[in-house]
Design goal:
Distance between the termini: 73 Å
Structural class: alpha/beta
CATH architecture of the largest domain: 3-Layer(aba) Sandwich
Order of helices and strands: HEHEHEHEEHEHEHEHHEEEHEHHEEE
Radius of gyration: 23 Å
Number of helices: 12
CATH superfamily of the largest domain: Periplasmic binding protein-like II
Number of domains: 2
Helix content: 25-40%
Strand content: 25-35%
CATH topology of the largest domain: D-Maltodextrin-Binding Protein, domain 2
Shape: globular
């Protein structure tokens, strides 16, 4: 019996060693600053993450492929191991955490910035302000001054955010429309009066060249929160001070389970360089980049 037990133990040990070596071999071409990886990104956050990837790739021997999806699609692929890294406007809920717990994976969740949801209207519309309560009432199909709302995608993070505020699970049947991207929402609102568009603020601050002409035909609205008496514009300063009512935190969710590019990219985005990119894009960094003051001939010069 002892001999059989020793043989079984030896076989089990051998299997574990071979398995570990295979895992190491699979990751041997990837480190925290080199190799190839695919990162899923909430489509509303794409512009700022594209900027980060561009600088990261120019600094390190790494190739990052971004897949822009709706929030629901990103979560589904992440849970199904289609991808192991994602950029989201929220953390994981208890049910999602349990999925990874069952796989014996502890996700590394890193806060990287604070963004905002912007409400936009056509330039021909007179009002440049809107009450959040009117948005909520419209989503609940109650009397409201709003004629129509347009979202990027019914499964997007912006749609989920507004639905949660209104206490509903899905879009109402009347007056709410959706496309596929934030670009399409901006274009539609620029060409149609009386419609409120719901987009990620970084699409306004950091637009694609082809989107720029449409931005000139829209207004970004100031919003009055449910517990406020004033209307607040989604400026970087107002978001940082926590007075804009539609602000949201951004996260990198890394489920690789080893020291790979997911860890390296997260560290880069929260580094001095990565946070400066966020600052210049009009978002609020989690760490304020330092400023150097050079004194020349008795005068102070700020160097960013």
């Amino acid at each position: 019996m002892k001999a059989k037990f020793k043989v079984a133990a030896f076989v089990l040990l051998a299997i574990l060693v071979i398995t570990c070596k295979k895992k190491e071999a699979g990751h041997s071409k990837e480190s925290i600053n080199s190799g190839k990886v695919t990162i899923l990104v909430d489509e509303t956050l794409t512009p700022i993450i594209e900027d980060q990837v561009q600088i990261f790739e120019s600094t390190y021997d790494a190739k990052i492929t971004l897949e822009s999806k709706s929030e629901a699609e990103v979560i589904q692929k992440l849970a199904n191991d289609t991808s192991q890294i994602a950029v989201l406007s929220r953390g994981l809920n208890p049910n999602e955490e349990q999925i990874f717990k069952n796989k014996k994976i502890i996700p590394r969740i890193t806060k990287i910035a604070t963004d905002a949801i912007a409400l936009i209207s056509n330039k021909n519309d007179k009002d440049t302000i809107i009450a959040l309560q009117d948005i909520i009432a419209f989503m609940q199909q109650k009397p409201s001054s709003i004629k129509g709302l347009v979202f990027d995608n019914p499964n997007s993070s912006t749609a989920r955010y507004i639905n949660e505020l209104a206490g509903i699970k899905s879009f109402p049947e009347k007056g709410v429309f959706s496309f596929k991207t934030n670009d399409e929402v901006i274009k539609y609102v620029s060409e149609n009066s009386g419609i409120i568009g719901v987009v990620g603020m970084n699409w306004i601050n950091d637009p694609k060249p082809e989107t720029q002409p449409y931005l000139e035909k829209i207004n970004v609205l100031s919003v009055k929160g449910n517990s406020s008496n004033s209307y607040t514009f989604p400026s970087q300063n107002n978001i940082a001070e926590g007075i804009y009512p539609l602000a949201r935190d951004l996260y990198i969710v890394n489920c690789q389970g080893y020291a790979g590019l997911g860890m390296g990219f997260s560290s880069f985005v929260t580094s001095e360089t990565g946070q400066r990119i966020i600052l210049k894009a009009g978002l609020v960094p989690v760490k304020t980049p330092s400023r150097q003051i050079l004194i020349r001939n008795g005068k102070e010069t700020n160097k960013k």
